[in-house]
Design goal:
The chain is built from seven helices and four strands; from the N terminus they run H-H-E-H-H-E-H-E-H-E-H. It is an alpha+beta fold. Strands 1-2-4-3 form a four-stranded antiparallel sheet, with helices on both faces.
């Protein structure tokens, strides 16, 4: 019996650590100029392969961007992409819409989150940059076939800032029981 109790206590501490990890991830927009070693980039992408996808189709590809000129061109697509100018690495997450026609956007969003969590676990910072308003330009810049839709660009590097948590909506405003409008939290 004491062994079972020990396992529960250990799992409880581990759960708290994981929750703390999830709550401490931040979007990083300022990066140190230090290069990110290739082995860390590949480890992050390797972890992203384990993200859930509908039917386990894994419709994603990852294009690692280190070339400064290419990063600058991607960063210039819209004002929200500017963190890529300061990041040593960008990772474009693209999905094959033919392989997963209904869920490719969600599948690649999951892979994007795995990239961000893996980077956080390795002491790196990230920020997600949306790409959906610039699909054709990004496809052209990266020579992506038409069926590969860029879902996100992740700017990646060592954090040069430590942002405070941003406000979150209270549960009372966003959680319902069974039907919209039926409050779950009082």
């Amino acid at each position: 019996m004491p062994a079972a109790r020990y396992i529960v206590i250990t799992m409880s501490c581990r759960s708290e650590d994981i929750i703390e990890f999830l709550l401490t991830r931040r979007s990083i927009r300022q990066f140190k100029p230090d290069p990110v070693p290739d082995d860390l980039v590949l480890k992050i992408v390797d972890i992203a392969r384990f993200a859930p996808s509908a039917g386990n189709r894994q419709p994603w590809i990852f294009v690692v961007i280190k070339d400064k000129e290419l990063k600058d061109r991607l960063a210039s697509l819209h004002s929200g992409s500017s963190p890529l100018l300061r990041a040593p690495v960008g990772i474009v997450v693209a999905c094959d819409k033919n392989q997963s026609p209904i869920s490719y956007q969600v599948d690649c969003a999951n892979a994007t989150m795995y990239i961000m969590f893996a980077a956080h676990a390795l002491g790196l910072g990230t920020v997600w940059l949306q790409t959906l308003r610039n699909v054709e330009e990004i496809q052209k810049l990266l020579d992506l076939p038409e069926n590969y839709v860029p879902i996100a660009i992740v700017a990646l590097g060592y954090p040069a800032e430590k942002p405070q948590p941003r406000p979150r909506k209270p549960l009372e405003e966003i959680v319902y029981l069974n039907k919209f409008g039926s409050k779950y939290v009082t």
